[in-house]
Write a structure and sequence with these properties.
Blueprint: E1 2-5, H1 15-30, E2 34-39, H2 49-61, E3 67-72, H3 77-89, E4 93-96, H4 100-110, E5 115-116, E6 119-120, H5 131-139, E7 145-148, H6 150-157, E8 162-165, E9 169-172, E10 182-184, H7 192-202, E11 207-211, H8 215-227, E12 234-238, H9 258-263, H10 268-274
This protein binds glutamic acid.
């Protein structure tokens, strides 16, 4: 039984991360399992090596220990490429040449667009391009993203998919919530959704713990697991730590970073108390 804490090195850890890490570690400990840390550092433009170092220092200061080696997503693009190839072989991906602006304009001219968890859904402009048109665009050197044809994927699967959250119960997967998601871009050859599903399987994560903000994403992850014939873990989405105004903590709130709390005299014990872990 393995759990993981999977931060992105794009900022300093805050109380919300301490809670997420402590939660994953506690679930593993209670089951006599292993706790892993994974660096989700695919977005090369936002990662900083100093944040990476800070993550390990802060987790150690909090008293956590984890299984080595730590998996760094940026070192495993081959694995994500192999997953894309598998989806391509099922003819479930299509190149999308739309810029963000073009998508916005398309949505504006349509008057409205169905909303997904991450905003308005992609209107599907590039889904219906002919093979010749696609080839021409690609040959011209136009940058493109790879999108999943989610309805076709659901049709191919042919039956409803289910997943289980130990805190929230059984769900029938609704991957169409996200529309035709981008699974790869030129600058970032694997999206969060693709990489997380591949990694959790490769690392043998039996229980995926993460914040409730990511619960909708699990609907899509369940479909990707099915398409890629990956094992299906269980999930436990946990509450989010909020600030005094009830707002979810964000990396921008530097004042609440573990580091700054520590510099202002907090002990690790006090951090655990602040996030509601009474006895550790
Ligand atoms: N890297 C993600 C985050 O920082 C973690 C997502 C996950 O645990 O699946 O929110």
């Amino acid at each position: 039984m393995r759990t993981r804490f999977a931060p992105s090195p794009t900022g300093l850890l805050h109380l919300g991360h301490a809670f997420a890490a402590g939660f994953a570690q506690r679930e593993a400990a209670q089951a006599g399992g292993e706790f892993l840390v994974r660096l989700e550092d695919i977005d090369g433009t936002r990662n900083r090596p100093e944040y990476e170092t800070a993550i390990f220092e802060d987790l150690a200061w909090l008293g956590l220990s984890w299984q080595e080696p730590v998996r760094k997503q940026s070192e495993h693009f081959d694995d994500y490429r192999a997953a894309l190839t598998k989806l391509e072989a099922q003819d479930l991906l299509y190149p999308c040449f739309c810029t963000r602006k073009e998508i916005q304009a398309e949505i504006a001219s349509a008057g409205q667009a169905p909303q997904g968890p991450d905003g308005p859904l992609y209107p599907g402009t590039c889904r219906s391009r002919s093979l010749a048109e696609r080839a021409d665009h690609i040959a011209s050197g136009a940058p493109y993203a790879l999108r999943l044809d989610v309805e076709k994927a659901r049709r191919n699967v042919g039956h409803p998919l289910h997943w289980r959250d130990l805190a929230h119960g059984e769900f029938e997967a609704q991957p169409q919530l996200f529309g035709d998601v981008v699974l790869a871009r030129k600058e970032t050859p694997a999206s969060y959704h693709l990489a997380v599903v591949v990694d959790d399987a490769l690392q043998g994560i039996a229980l995926v713990t993460r914040g409730e903000d990511l619960l909708p994403a699990t609907h899509l992850h369940r479909l990707l697991q099915e398409l890629l014939t990956l094992p299906v873990p269980e999930w436990k989405h946990h509450r989010l730590i909020t600030n005094e105004h009830g707002k979810r903590l964000a990396k921008r709130d530097d004042a609440r970073s573990i580091r700054s709390l520590r510099e202002s005299g907090w002990t690790a014990e006090r951090v655990w108390e602040a996030v509601g872990f009474r006895e550790r």
